[in-house]
Design goal:
By secondary structure, this protein is an alpha/beta fold. Among the domains are: 108 residues, Rossmann fold (3-Layer(aba) Sandwich); 99 residues, no CATH class. The strands form three sheets. Strands 12-11-10-9-8-7-13 form a seven-stranded parallel sheet. It is globular, with a radius of gyration of 21 Å. The structure holds iron/sulfur cluster (2 copies). One iron/sulfur cluster binds next to helix 15, helix 18 and helix 19. One iron/sulfur cluster binds next to loops.
Length: 431
């Protein structure tokens, strides 16, 4: 057993455990907990859309349920299984009566969370996405299975505890013919696999081949129920195809008795928060899938820096009008958190399809953000050293981009989005 695993097991002892974080990091930890028969008594997450859902047989609760769990389980400890926002969670737990001494940061034992962008291209061209930043022309391609095996071997040898791998960053993983083999390989290493897709995929066979291998977490991104709204923000996709594929996923899960946490990630814009959102909620409820609405933001770092320096192309400008939280307001909300250490920098390792390593998951331009040309040739320690004082971080921090992209202070995001929605509704009424 690896040293990091032994240390985590020693730290947790036999205490009853509550896992905070019901998405990929939490799912990865639950796989580890199952392997070591740990005493997990509950799962909590601040995302209301997850409340009441089941994960590894446990019901997901909102944080408000934590004091009751603490009263019911003497010596309760909270394992924080998230990749970002740990500090915010520790603060929230203190208010719920859980002292910092009873919190365990999972990231301290993992060292790094790994993301492998197996597909270096996408079939869509969303205006919020890195693929549509003018002037950035990254090479497109697919990671070979052989490289995936070598990369995961190196990762297991040099990283601390690895309990999950995300098989995506910017690219569309379903375009890769070997995606099922990647999932199979990941599971063979005892690790959970996460896949994120736009699901605008014209092959039922490809979908079935993935579903039957039970990726532990499957995120599907959408931004509308009807084509009018969807097409403006998921450009090049087909929402009717997405909906028919969601039915297929349901059918294939039942056919293959697969265990998959399906999470429909709904990007909210000014033009899709009415009937579209309502219909998509009904649709997901019928299928038994989680619908997680989130306020749409703008990526990558390069586009945001351009914006704050007054360089905005016409397509981006048109798209910005659809945001519920404008870039100016987003920066204002993020400003008080500007000086904090960037969590994208400290605990993540991203590997591109061609084995190169970018500075972080929110920088895109390979010409300026590559810190290693080959993950297989540079040690993890060397890769982490090259992240220090990177030139890209200077402007990024100056414009408070990390806290903006992390969406810190969601209460302020909600307040602003509600204000914009009320103003839009009043304007519509006057027409
Ligand atoms: S589907 Fe995802 S990866 Fe593809 S262009 Fe849109 S946001 Fe980018
Ligand atoms: S400061 Fe910005 S560029 Fe640097 S790692 Fe963080 S998000 Fe990436």
């Amino acid at each position: 057993m690896k040293k990091a695993e032994q240390e985590l097991l020693k730290t947790l002892g036999k205490s009853p455990l509550l896992v905070w974080g019901a998405r990929m990091t939490g799912i990865g930890f639950l796989r580890f907990a199952g392997k070591h028969a740990l005493n997990v008594v509950g799962v909590a997450d601040s995302d209301a859309s997850l409340c009441g859902r089941k994960l590894s047989g446990l019901t997901i609760s909102l944080p408000a349920a934590i004091p009751a769990l603490k009263a019911a389980h003497k010596g309760l400890r909270v394992l924080i299984a998230v990749s970002i926002k740990e500090d915010e969670i520790i603060g929230a737990l203190a208010k719920l009566g859980i002292p910092a001494a009873d919190c365990v940061r999972y990231s301290e034992f993992c060292g790094s969370f790994f993301t492998i962008d197996v597909t270096g291209t996408c079939n869509l061209r969303c205006p919020s996405c890195a693929y549509t930043v003018p002037g950035i022309k990254n090479p497109a391609g697919l990671m070979s299975y052989d490289d995936y095996v070598k990369i995961t071997d190196k990762m297991m040898g040099e990283a601390g505890l690895v309990s999950h791998i995300c098989l995506y960053s910017w690219g569309e993983p379903f375009l890769h013919p070997d995606l099922p083999r990647f999932i199979e390989r990941t599971h063979a290493l005892g690790i959970a696999a996460a896949v994120s897709t736009n699901l605008s995929i014209e092959s039922a066979e490809k979908i079935e081949n993935v579903i039957k291998l039970s990726p532990d977490y499957l995120k599907i991104s959408t931004s509308g129920f009807y084509p009018e709204a969807y097409n403006s923000t998921h450009t090049g996709g087909n929402v009717d195809l997405v909906k028919s594929n969601l039915y297929r996923i349901k059918y294939f899960i039942e056919k293959h008795k697969a265990h998959i946490f399906v999470d429909v990630n709904y990007h909210m814009y000014r033009n899709n928060v009415g009937k579209d959102l309502e219909k998509m909620q009904e649709f997901c409820d019928d299928l038994g899938f989680v619908l997680s609405p989130c306020y749409a933001n703008v990526t990558p770092v390069e586009r945001l820096v351009n914006y704050h320096e007054g360089k905005v192309d016409a397509a981006t400008r048109k798209f910005l009008d659809l945001l519920l939280v404008s870039l100016e307001k987003g920066r204002e909300i993020a400003e008080p958190y500007r000086g904090r250490a960037c969590r994208f920098l400290s605990n993540q390792v991203n590997i591109n399809w061609d084995r190169s390593v970018p500075l972080c998951c929110v920088c895109f331009d390979m010409k300026t953000s590559t810190i290693s040309k080959d993950y297989l040739k540079d040690s993890l320690a060397e890769i982490n050293r090259r992240k220090e004082r990177h030139v890209n971080c200077v402007k990024c921090m100056k414009y408070a981009i990390p806290p903006y992209l992390m969406g810190v202070n969601q209460a302020a995001w909600k307040k602003e989005a509600d204000r914009v929605m009320r103003a839009d509704a009043a304007r519509e009424k006057k027409r």
